[in-house]
Amino acid sequence: MPRILNVSKGTTVAGRAREARSFWARLVGLMGRRRLEEEEGLLISPCSSVQTLFMLFPIDVIFLDREAKVVRVAPALRPFRLAFGGRGARDALEVAAGTAARSDTAVGDRLAMEDGCQGGKT
Fold this sequence. Notes:
The chain is mainly beta. It has helices spanning 23-28, 99-102, and strands at 3-6, 11-14, 16-20, 40-44, 49-51, 59-64, 70-77, 82-84, 91-96, 111-114.
């Protein structure tokens, strides 16, 4: 599984990220899950807004533009709420609540997806 790095700060945002690119994968997102592990993330593309209807836990939502630059962070978005990425938002990274602060991720930072295999290691 790929990981998401904050290349601006040299931190890991999500050690194990899944991608949701199909209509159904984007629609379902994290619904039905009981929690999101600290290292997990879901990159939804394209996605300029998210809803947490029928979710059971809060999440951080990091909105990215076409160059994977952070345009907005919605911290600890509770269940049954909406969040909009605003101008330029193209993708949304959903991670466990508190992850954006722990990884020091803020507006203006650049994120990158890295394949899980590095130099023959998994």
